[in-house]
Every structure is written in C-alpha cells, then in structure tokens.
Write a structure and sequence with these properties.
The structure is a homodimer. The first copy, chain A, is α/β, with parallel strands linked by helices. Chain A is about 40% helix and about 10% strand. In chain A, the strands form two sheets. In chain A, strands 4-3-5-6-7 form a five-stranded mixed beta sheet. A two-stranded antiparallel sheet of chain A has the order 1-2.
Chain lengths: ~200, ~200
C-alpha cells in the first residue's frame, strides 16, 4: 500500500518542485493544506493561478507588469534620465526595497553565458539600445549580479555604450561577490549604488 | 510606490500563510512561480485545489480518504484485530512510513485539552467505542503524541476500555517526549511500537 492517497501525493509532488521545498516540507505543507477550510485553499490556489495569469512584461523595460507598463515606468515622478540594468524582475523588486533609487529599469532576462549558449541576442540588450536612442538617458547603471556572468554582461554593455557617449556606471562591490542580488539587504544595496564607478 | 505589483503581492500573502513559510521565502516562491510556464503553474494550483476538494474522511476510521473508506480500511490484508489510535491523519502517514504495522487505525481528530475546552465529546472517542462493539478487536494501541494532552488522552481512553476487556497498549517512549509524532523517524517509531506496554 502506498503511504499517501493519490490527491495528497499529487499535491506533494507539485509542491516539491518549488525551489527550497524538499519532500518532507512538501508533505508537511500538503497535510496542512488538506486540513484547511475549502475557501482558504481556493484562495491559495486561485492567487497562484490568477496571479501567474495576470503577469505580463512591461513593454518598455521588461519588468513584471499587470498592465501595458510596469508600476515604475508608469510613474511620472521617476527620474527618466537614469536606467538601471538588471537581470531579472526580482532584482527590480530588490532595488525597489531600498527606496533610494528613483530612476527607471531595464530587465535583461538573463546574462551572457557562452558556456550555456546565451549570447547578446538572447537577452534584451537590443531593446536597451533602442531605449537610449528614444529616451533622454544620461546614465546607465549596470546592476547585474556580481558573479562571472553578471560582470561579463556589464563589461559587454559598457563597451557597447561608451561610443554612444552615455555615462555607464557599475554598482560597487558592496554586495558580496558570488552571491545573488535578490538576497542582498537594503543597506548593502544602498552602499553599492552609492559607490558606483565609471566603466 | 509599492514594491510589488498586486498579483505578486496576493501570491506572497497567500503563500506566507502556510506553516514555516515566512515573507522572504514566500517572495522567493512567488517570483519563481511567476517565471514558470503557464501549464506548470496550472498544474501546481490545480493539484492544490483539486487535491483538497478530493479529500474526505474515511467513514470507519476518520483517516483521509478519496473514497468511502481509506486505503488502510479498504485493504483486506490488514489485520483487523488491532486498532492504532492517533490524533491526526498525518500521524497515520507517519505510522505507515515505517511499514511495520499491519492493523487498522482510528483517528481522534484532536486530543483532550481542558485548557482549550476540548473534552471527550469533541474528539472521535465515541466512534472508537462503537467500532469495538462491532469489530473483532483484541488490542487498541494508543499512539497519541507523547506530550501532556496525548498522555492524558491515552490514559482517558485506557480507563474507558479496561472494563470492556479490550487489551490496551501505549507506544513506548522511544519517541522523544515533547516532540511531534509526525517528525519521528522510522526506526524510532518502530522501537516505540515494539516496546508498547500494558495500561
């Protein structure tokens, strides 16, 4: 006899596919979910599914959006002379948590990685260049992760932008090298922004 | 400006209500979910909701079931002379993981707790007594948690069953006192079953 009935087993398998959730945690979560009132479970499942369905990409910067433009691009009080270039939408959320940056973003949706076959055409570099032509941009802040791919991507973009006369800066290595931007605390991120240097 | 758009914020709130999932973990999970293909997210949300909807209680023992009877009660090879009394369906899953027990179960859905106003009529003790009248039971194994409420519940049931001439045993304190049955490893649970004593 299997240890779990099929509906619970399916729930465990689905939850165990999420990052950082192992078999034991998934089991604990599944048994908790099964013990909740129907409305609560509907609310959880619904917010996951409807939330995912509602997500689209901002037509300007590539950040997550629920309308044509993301909350940052749609905000007229943001300083449109600065563009902060990040890898993922979650990095936008990390930057926004520090409340110190008032410019716009550009989400690359990846970093250059020749080992994995990711070249300049596979990430949103072309879209960044197009924005520089249209918008009144005076500075591009390169805030890709401080790891090998992130550094390589920043260097690549800086070399492209230099001839265009755009000021190109890199966030300081206040963020611990080899870590993930998403997990940096607000103070570290703030220091990193402050100590940005010419490239 | 809020740090997250509404669909993501809703997902984070829903996930953060689950046990052991804090705000940061919920955010990480939400951003991961949002980056998954639509089908995968549908699968996750669906297995949570359909799984919860499919769950009912076994009419005999109170365990989780997807039909009228749970997988244990419906299995004709299980020894029907033994009933193991546990607090929750998740404790049935813990017992089943050790593969050493071949009898039936009875799920109380709670333990006696005068402090919280939980008396004998609030948990499934009456249903247990009814089963003893109908079925050919020679032993009731009391496997409630080894904490104050669990001990009190076991003692209470043992006192009720003694006059009925049913052998009543308690799992040994091989399981660490004050812990939760759900987290005991298979070997510890096996030792606890082996060393059960008369009450």
């Amino acid at each position: 006899m299997s240890q779990q009935i099929e509906p619970i087993q399916r729930m465990v398998s689905a939850l165990a596919r999420l990052p950082g959730i192992g078999q034991k945690t998934a089991q604990r979560l599944a048994y908790h979910i099964v013990s909740l009132p129907l409305e609560d479970v509907h609310d959880i499942a619904n917010s996951i599914w409807q939330g995912r369905k509602a997500i689209r990409y901002c037509e300007t910067c590539g950040n997550y959006a629920s309308q044509e433009h993301c909350a940052v691009c749609a905000n007229p009080t943001r300083h449109n002379g600065q563009i902060c270039v990040v890898r993922d939408p979650r990095d936008v959320a990390a930057m926004e948590r520090m409340h110190d940056y008032h410019g716009l973003y550009h989400v690359l949706h990846g970093t250059l990685s020749p080992m994995d076959g990711v070249g300049p055409d596979d990430i949103h570099i072309r879209e960044l260049l197009a924005r520089l032509g249209q918008e009144n941009v005076t500075e591009v802040i390169l805030a890709t992760n401080p790891d090998i791919e992130g550094e390589a991507t920043a260097t690549y973009i800086a070399r492209l932008l230099k001839p265009m006369g755009v000021r190109c800066t890199r966030i300081a290595h206040g963020v611990p090298v080899g870590s993930d931007l998403e997990y940096a605390d607000e103070v570290t991120l703030s220091k990193a922004l402050e100590g940005r240097r010419e490239m």
